[in-house]
Predict the 3D structure of the following.
Amino acid sequence: MRYSKQRELIYNTLKSNPCHPTADYLYSLIKPLYPPLSLGTLYRNLNQMVERGRIKKISGLNQADRFDHIVQVHAHIICEICGKVEDVFLSEELSRQLNKSAEKTAFKINRREIIFNGICKECIKKQEK
Amino acid sequence: MRYSKQRELIYNTLKSNPCHPTADYLYSLIKPLYPPLSLGTLYRNLNQMVERGRIKKISGLNQADRFDHIVQVHAHIICEICGKVEDVFLSEELSRQLNKSAEKTAFKINRREIIFNGICKECIKKQEK
DNA sequence: TTAGATGCAAACCCTTTGCTTGATT
DNA sequence: AATCAAGCAAAGGGTTTGCATCTAA
């Protein structure tokens, strides 16, 4: 993988923004600092890094995909109101049992994605007002 | 919810096709039997039934959403090659522990989606040839 | 009679792609 | 010099929506 200023910026911006940003949000952060960046390049780089296991993509939110610089296997929880995403780490044991359940299907399992949907503390407070 | 021929057909077709069809596939099944059906109506009805808990939507496949007439909470596994989706049922205990892990985030949890990615038995065989 | 449902087609959003130009090794 | 990456803009797929018409209750 050949060096490019764009890719470096994309990775670093993702790393320093642990909010699980969308491609679009990353673009809005990087574009002002480095105007030559194009959306196509952003998506291409994100996908490349996902393929190489350098970052992770969180799909299945019924919205734009989000990206995560934490490569370790973990789950996510998304607020249905404000869209905030937080990490959920499962115990080794739980993780093992999950895979065991899936292995009953006779599939060869490559990976999994777990997404909880809910409402975050802040949005619950706002609702109560 | 007022009766409509379209909705009845959609629900029945979903029920008799446990392959977790996409909206598009449902359309291809129903349209020939009942040509007045439009795609917009199909999507509108599917979403309505999801909201009312009569069916489930499986998102996060990096492809078209799929629909499931089984309302009971369960996970899914999708074949990365042929796209086949199968059900994965988790034990009560595992289910409870999953939710407990997520509750550590201080979110109020509404639901969850678990998707395993892998390769099905048939596709593994084909690869070996 | 009237709210809710439909059909149609256009719009939408997010993402990918083709092609030419530019940069890294 | 030879790839690989970028920029741009257009196309793509899946899904939603506005509006006029129709239909179940």
User: Anything to note?
Assistant: Chain B has a mean pLDDT of 95. Residues 2-4, 22-24, 39-40, 43-44, 47, 63-65 of chain B lie near DNA strand D (CB under 10 Å from a C1').
